[in-house]
Amino acid sequence: MQIHVGERREGDVLTLRVLEGVCESVLMEVLKAEGIEIVVGPIANGSARLEVRAPKRMLVLVEKALLGPPEIDSG
């Protein structure tokens, strides 16, 4: 089992996606047998600790959002 831990604030979004080229039948077998666990830890000051546990056979990539407001292309 691999574990990824992070903190999220109210309204943040956690997205699980399947990468291109992944064999869907193998993925479904792993999900049925082992699953993915998402544990919500203590919530304090509008922030919660999240722990994502996934089977070692799965590749889990963590994509971090840029801080600050999104840039708007006005041109």
Automatic annotation (TrEMBL):
InterPro entries: CsrA_sf. It comes from the Bacteria. This is Ferrous iron transport protein A. It comes from Metapseudomonas resinovorans (Pseudomonas resinovorans).
